[in-house]
Design brief:
single chain, alpha+beta, 2 domains, two-stranded antiparallel ribbon, globular, Kinesin_motor_dom
């Protein structure tokens, strides 16, 4: 049994999902000092990646290792991740201008695929489906979970 707040049909736009999931309110709580997670769940091919990223990929041949480059067709289709980041920095700027407060931002970006955790910010992990090991999840001394060796970047 799963508990959830909202279900979107196949006609929902990226804007519908962003607003319906109340991401702006979530981001506002982040600027107040709380942690947040945006989580997409569903079977393979159900649209999670498109909802989170909002664009397709094309093969990139730049003489280095084979990689993929995002194809961003228009601003209307950008995903939840990009919209949330944009909203976060807009709210940070607003708070700084209004109160002078300094806010530091740290991010990680992971994928759970076939019950394994993959770091999407680790350039050595560009194709998680071929990496069979995944990262380990542990509990720390504060009874919080952590993903071992997950890249965390300060923005």
């Amino acid at each position: 049994t799963f508990k959830f707040d909202k279900v979107f049909n196949t006609d929902a736009t990226q804007t519908d999902v962003f607003e319906g999931a109340r991401i702006s309110q979530l981001v506002s709580r982040v600027t107040d000092g709380y942690h947040a997670t945006i989580f997409a769940y569903g079977q393979t091919g159900s649209g999670k990646t498109f909802t989170m990223e909002g664009y397709d990929y094309k093969n990139k041949n730049d003489g280095r290792a084979k990689s993929k480059a995002p194809v961003i067709k228009d601003d209307e289709n950008i995903g939840i991740t990009q919209r949330a980041v944009r909203e976060l920095f807009q709210q940070i700027k607003f708070k700084k201008d209004k109160t002078g407060v300094h806010i530091s931002v740290f991010v990680s970006y992971l994928q759970i695929y076939s019950e394994k955790v993959y770091d999407l910010l680790n350039l050595n992990n560009l194709n998680p489906k071929k990496n069979t090991k995944g990262l380990r999840i542990r509990w720390n001394k504060k009874d919080q979970f952590l993903v071992e060796n997950l890249f965390i970047f300060e923005c």
